Amino acid sequence: MTVMKRLSNLSLWARTGVLLGGLTVVGGLLVAYRPLALDIRLQTIVRQPTPIQRIQQHQGMRLTGTTVLVEGEVGDRAPFIDFELYELRQDTDSLWVMTREPGAETGDRLRVRGRIQAETIEHNGTTTIDYYLLEHRRYEE
């Protein structure tokens, strides 16, 4: 393989965030750490669920817009006219999921692939960022 072909492959890996031999390609440079968003992207590709705690306790909004796979048990539900919200619980952590597909019942065990969204809430001078998942696909266990 020529040097140009290798550089072309590295450029492709840099754009797609592929893990290369324990190193991560970021912006065309090989670095020895793996950012959280990359870990979550890789977990989604190999169908390993992302812990809800990792989403809820992540600092900043770097994960907003990232597609993840989460699993848990359906808790509370809130139907609306055009969509439905349901709470997906893992141990003591939970994440609200927004969907246009009805059918998630309390107590169901689900795997859900979706995009992380963030909502900024201001109340009494305090700003809170609440994360939720925009459902793309649901898998029943």
Overall mean pLDDT stands at: 75
Strand order, biggest sheet? 4-5-6-8-7
Order of helices and strands: HEEEHHEEEEE
Rounded Rg? 18 Å
Based on Cα principal axes, name the global outline.
Answer: globular
**Oligomeric state:** single chain
Measured between the Cα atoms of the first and last residue, the distance is 45 Å
* Proportion of beta-strand residues: over 45%
The biggest beta sheet is recorded as:
5 strands, mixed, barrel
The poorly predicted ranges are 1-23, 29-34
Instruction: Quickly give the structural class.
Output: alpha+beta
Which bin fits the share of residues in helices? 10-25%
Q: What can you see in these coordinates?
A:
With 141 residues, the protein is an alpha+beta fold. The protein has three helices and eight strands; from the N terminus they run αβββααβββββ. The strands form two sheets. The protein has a five-stranded mixed β-barrel. A hairpin with a 2-residue loop joins strand 1 (19-20) and strand 2 (23-26). The longest helix has 14 residues, at 3-16. The termini are far apart. Residues 1-23 and 29-34 have low confidence and may be disordered.
Task: State the main characteristics.
5-stranded mixed barrel; disordered N terminus; alpha+beta; globular; 8 strands; 141 residues; 21% helix; single chain; 3-stranded antiparallel beta sheet
Summed up:
The protein is an alpha+beta fold and 141 residues long. The protein has three helices and eight strands; from the N terminus they run αβββααβββββ.
